[in-house]
Design brief:
By secondary structure, the protein is α/β, with parallel strands linked by helices. The chain is built from eleven helices and 14 strands. Helix content is 33%, strand content 22%.
């Protein structure tokens, strides 16, 4: 067995199936890793409130990389290990820009999304399937005015999410937002964009957590499917891309596993670590 001590796993499109569920096969593989002393670390664009309860409460899942690396948390001690946030003034400027376009958007502050009713009540118009709508509604607080909230609180922002079905508009906004040197723009879904501080990447967060735990890069493994996973897959000792992942993720990976609908996480664990799935 390779000396892997930490496995970082993207959620949507990677560990979870298309119904946002943890399959019995993947769950068994994670439990096998935990029994062998390997830390399982959710690494997601979601805030802490968006972690599936069965994963958050699983014995052995202590740490999480959240909002694309903006925060690394010790879930057991409820302590922030590291964070890379967007200054509130820059977040306000970005939200003001987005307000000019027919897209849904929401900033994440203190582990929760903040979303206006005009977006929350019409998520289907922005391309979100039912399973994702359920997740959004459970992890966002309804607010009257996002811009006013950010200006009043003057709190740093973990991430800003954008939802739209208009691919031309989506790519145009991606290009426009890329002009901000202080920001990094990625995507985990075909109908979204995710805006973080330029230093907030899953790859940086993974290395920070490994250092915190006294691990070498070679002792880490990471799996993902979207552009927000590239840095993590490229940084890890073993980087794994999902069969359903973007081509650019596959190009940065050491290995391509099965899709998220085929228990690709469990398959990669068996391939590299030779652990029993049950």
């Amino acid at each position: 067995m390779m000396d892997i001590r930490l496995i970082a796993l993207d959620m949507d499109g990677t560990l979870l199936n298309d119904q946002k569920e943890l399959s019995p096969g993947n769950r068994a593989a994670l439990e096998s890793c935990i029994r062998h002393g390997i830390a399982i670390v959710p690494a997601t664009g979601r805030p802490s409130a968006g972690l599936p309860a069965e994963l958050r409460t699983m014995a052995g899942v202590r740490y999480a990389i959240l909002t694309n690396g903006a925060r690394v948390e010790d879930l057991q001690e409820k302590k922030i290990i590291s964070q890379e946030l967007i200054h509130w003034e820059l977040a306000y400027e970005v939200l003001a820009l987005l307000s000019q376009y027919p897209v849904a958007y929401d900033p994440y502050i203190n582990g929760r999304g903040k979303m206006e009713a005009r977006f929350r009540d019409h998520l289907d118009q922005y391309g979100l399937p039912p399973a994702m709508q359920k997740l959004v509604l459970s992890s966002r607080d309804e607010v009257e005015d996002e811009l006013a909230l950010v200006k009043a609180w003057k709190a740093p922002v973990e991430k800003i999410n954008i939802f739209t079905t208009d691919q031309k508009l989506r790519m145009g906004l991606w290009e426009k937002l890329n002009q901000y040197q202080e920001l990094v723009v990625t995507s985990s879904l075909e109908y979204n964009l995710e805006i973080n501080a330029v230093t907030a990447t899953k790859g940086n967060a993974l290395m920070q957590l490994a250092d915190h735990l006294g691990l070498e890069r070679e002792q880490t493994m990471a799996m993902g499917d979207g552009s927000n996973d590239i840095s993590m897959v490229a940084s890890a000792g073993i980087g794994v891309a999902m069969a359903n992942g973007m081509d650019i993720v596959k190009q940065n990976a050491d290995y391509i596993t099965l899709s998220n609908e085929e228990d690709g996480v469990a398959a990669a664990i068996r391939h590299f670590l030779h652990l029993p799935a049950e």
